[in-house]
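Go through this one:
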Amino acid sequence: KESNQSEEIDLFSSAATVLARRIELVKCTSAEIIVDHMNKVAQASIWASDPEIIRKAKDLHELFRTSKEIGAKTAGNEYLRLLSADPLPVLVAYAIKYYDHLWPRERRGGLTDLYYPQFLSKIRENGLSHHDVRRYLGNDSLVLAAAHAFITIEVAGNPDSISNLHRDALQYEEDAQVYVLSWYKYRSGEEPESEIVSSRTDVGPVTTGSLSVVDVFRHVLQITEPMLALAREEDQNALFMGDYKNNTRANNEEGFR
């Protein structure tokens, strides 16, 4: 009997070890996705602040407008001048300036930009995909999923509750000098649950090893900020926000939720 109990304990211990390893793997993979995205968003901000790159983005917009008037040969030469050396920074800066960090299809009314087909064509002609440009803009469902997983694991929270975090859920408590995350747990009444969460004390670049809940929360706030004006009023306090479309006949509303 003692032998059977020992075997059961070993089995439970092994299962717990395997589960812990898998949870850690999910957390590490999520951290890699988030940090990579942070770096891309930071790089996009640098490109969008570079006068030369912005000038090219403006020239590209003007070229989209006048390409039919100036003729194919002249337009082709101008496209080469603007995009042949390094197209990605110019295209990313263009999207930031003229689309406000949102992919055109996500803007209210769908394809509201007259020059979207030309913009997409130039992306493809330069050996890029729309994903190569879009991941620099901020809104990225993979990053939101990684952020959700990272926070859920860090606070051992209910995934549904973490999905419904409010934008003001993270607060700094001066007296204790700690950050506290609060959320509502389903079926537990109106009292929120709170947890002291990890934060970095150094001011150096964030890494996968130093990434904290505070870093992740602030990054999600940043990348979802452009969506707020397009979200329904009842959804504007949501932390996790993405493009939503209901294709049922009963309700064809769409927007950011």
